[in-house]
Specification:
Protein name: ABC-2 transporter permease
Number of domains: 1
Order of helices and strands: HHHHHHHHHH
Organism: Paenibacillus swuensis
Keywords: Membrane, Transmembrane, Transmembrane helix
Number of strands: 0
Distance between the termini: 43 Å
Helix content: over 70%
Length: about 200
């Protein structure tokens, strides 16, 4: 609510960390479905046990990794439509800066960013233990927070620069973002597969 409040009530001539936190943190987890497996993966090491089971079955690792990316696509579509539709109608500041079509482009740009982050999550989710996955998520979150804080100290609004970039470059910005996201997925897919073939399950 604090983050949403920042988006709703911050004036144009004031800087607030809240919008940047929303833009940097939330899209990074758009591809995650917060199911029981995610809530218990540290205690039960769910993903490692599942991968060990898959290795005993006639299922190729490529199929497992591909299925995970397909699941991310579904979650990203659902979470993106939910989050950014609500934000569009609730956020006065955003509505004042972008009309519907540029806002869609702005959203697609953030989806590209989400794709980059989700490729990292898949690699550590399938390739390492639950504790290692938790530690990686923690470190990544801290790094993202540092980026937001540094931007704030420099009085450099990530949100406003993304909005300005969308207005200035139009469809080019989301197109480049999605292209980078797709290239990251392609690389992440093959890197994850190679790592899983080398991983030992006990």
């Amino acid at each position: 609510m604090l983050i949403l409040g920042g988006l709703l009530h911050v004036e144009e001539d004031q800087w607030s960390i809240a919008p940047d936190l929303l833009i940097v943190i939330f899209p990074s987890v758009l591809g995650i479905s917060f199911t029981k497996d995610y809530l218990n993966y540290i205690k039960n090491d769910t993903f490692t046990k599942r991968m060990a089971l898959y290795r005993t079955m006639p299922i190729r690792i490529e199929e497992v990794v591909l299925a995970r990316f397909l699941n991310i696509i579904i979650c990203t579509i659902y979470n993106t439509l939910t989050l950014f539709t609500v934000l569009y109608f609730l956020t006065e500041r955003m509505n004042g800066a972008l009309t519907l079509i540029p806002y869609i482009g702005f959203t697609i740009t953030l989806v590209g960013y989400s794709m980059i982050m989700s490729a990292c999550y898949v690699y550590y989710e399938l390739g390492y233990s639950g504790k290692r996955y938790l530690m990686t998520n923690f470190v990544m979150t801290i790094l993202l927070l540092i980026v937001v804080i540094v931007a704030g100290v420099l009085n450099w609004s990530i949100t406003q620069h993304l909005i300005q970039g969308q207005v200035q470059y139009g469809p080019l910005l989301p197109a480049v973002s999605i292209l980078i996201g797709c290239l990251t997925w392609y690389a992440g897919y093959h890197i994850t597969i190679r790592h899983l073939y080398r991983r030992e399950f006990r």
